[in-house]
Amino acid sequence: MGKTEHVISIWLGGGMGQVDTFDPKRKGDPKEKIPGSYYDSIDTAVPGVQLCEHLPRMASLMDRITAVRSVNHKVIDEHAAATNFMHTGRAISGTVTYPSIGSLIAHERGPADDSAPAYVVIGYPNVTRGPGFLGSKHGYLYLTDTSQGPAGLSRPKNISSFRQDRRNKLLSDLRNSTGRPEDARLAGYDEIIDESIRLSGPSFNRAFELDNEPSTLRENYGGEFGQRCLLSRRLIERGVRFVEVSHNLNFLNGTGWDVHNQGILNQHELIREMDNAVSALILDLEKKSLLDKTLIMITTEFGRPPEFDGGGGRGHQGKAMTCVLAGGGLNHCGAYGQTDEISKKIVENPVSVPDFFATVCAAMQIDASKYLYDGDRPVPITDNGNPIKQLFS
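Now predict its structure.
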């Protein structure tokens, strides 16, 4: 079992192509329809492990990183279904709404400080990030703009302290007259109200004041995605247990990570932005003695095949993809698992999504074999996943 206390999950919505990032192979040619990588490869700090040429900063830090190159799933290669699977570790069910990995960790560990929420999403809300049958208490707080904190926690300027106190008293009187709800769902909403009141104070909201950081550090992180990564560090410092940082933003190449056809032409700009921000986050956490306590995970809904489509881009591939782990006190090895000569098939150490989630749980001192309950129905916490043992030896 690991000693990790926090998780920063970086979500690359759209489908990051492993063959063009963390699992580079021979160079391909989209014009001649020769399968292979779109870019050249470079050496890293770990002998024998190479990355795409547009990841030079992360390449220098690969002794703190493991690219798990053999992640796979059999979900239909469609964005919504795969996004759900890569957050819950399970296919969509008609009878059970499964919790996300963020909600699972929030449920099992809670916040590291009572003045903070357990789970924050920096990006747009989505049911795939939600608590499922665990209930609203284990859901997330979210924001979409790093220039300000969550709107729901900021008191409008026209609401004075006097008016706020009156509202709190009215809520208290109402509860005293009716009692706490017995229905578990209503009780969960009641707890959220209490948490919202607690979090609306200045202590937690100071986490969103990025202007207090040195200008050179903010510049090191880069643009909006980088500022999201910087904010994630500030949030875990205040006790947030799990932060998801979304990078499915079309700031640079117009398509995000979903590089069909012409979308691949400027993919390198997106890769460079990730390289810049994630490497800055790793070094920042390390400087503050937080890297061994914080597990960074990079996930996406599926990978990309080595073949090029009719427009020179790439389609979808879930049977062989890469997810990344960094920090967290793990025994990193640069790369784990192996695909064939063009990253189309797994040839060594396959890792299912439940296995990957079980590894995250083990790092967080959560028993990956335990069961949770949807009413009376037992549900294995990671669908019987097994942690990657080599990362804990």
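The chain has a mean pLDDT of 90.
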